[in-house]
Amino acid sequence: MSSTLCEDVHRNEGNMEFWDVYDQCMQKTGRTHVRGVPLEEGDYHLIVHVYPVNSQGEILIQKRADTVKTKPGVWATTGGSVIAGENFFEGGLRELREELGIVADEKNTRLLAVMQRPNRFRAVWLVRTDITREELQLQKEEVADAMWATPDKIREMVGTGEFWHYDYLEWLFRKIDKVREEGWM
Predict the structure, then answer these.
(1) Residue 18: beta bridge partners?
(2) Alpha helices in the chain (DSSP H)
(3) Does residue 11 sit in helix, strand or coil?
(4) Res 7 pLDDT > 80
């Protein structure tokens, strides 16, 4: 169930998280939604997937904490829902900072795609970084571990069920190769 909130209500109240509601054309409806309540038919929210990539072309992946609701203990990308008042970029930067302690900006971040999915729009981002595993600050409530992995290692992990099977992984690996060829990484 969606609701309209006053201007002075914070994006997060206690344990409640609010999302802006969008229509099928990715336009804000002026309504907000409480996380955990099913969205109404025709309503959408924004989510982000952020892929830190180092100069060797490895991708920083994270193991989801055993206490998270969805896919506990599974390796995945950094990401989550964009909260009310944020845009895709701000949400991606926040998720990356919260989950891994990585601070990114416009200089080392690149939007690869926005994909429409049932009830959500998903933005896929790359972030250039050569941060070491030891420099990461893992958000213990959500992240149990992190590691740098090659696309081949991720494919292997998908095959064994250790890594979340995102439907766009092969496309992502080709895009990473392309941006590296262009000299962005």
Answers:
(1) 34
(2) 88-100, 151-160, 169-181
(3) coil
(4) no
**Rounded Cα–Cα distance for residues 163 and 104 (Å):** 24
* Separation CA 73–CA 174 (nearest Å): 27
CA-based nearest residue to 121, from 1, 25, 12: 25
| Mean pLDDT within 124-149 | 97
Tell me what pLDDT residue 16 has.
87
- CB 143, CB 151: distance < 8 Å: no
Beta-carbon contacts of residue 144 (< 8 Å; ≥ 6 apart): 62, 63, 64, 65, 66, 73, 138
Q: Give the type of residue at 78.
A: T
- pLDDT value at residue 5: 30
Q: Show the domains of the chain with their CATH numbers.
A: 44-181 (3.90.79.10)
Distance of alpha carbon 110 from alpha carbon 147, whole angstroms: 21
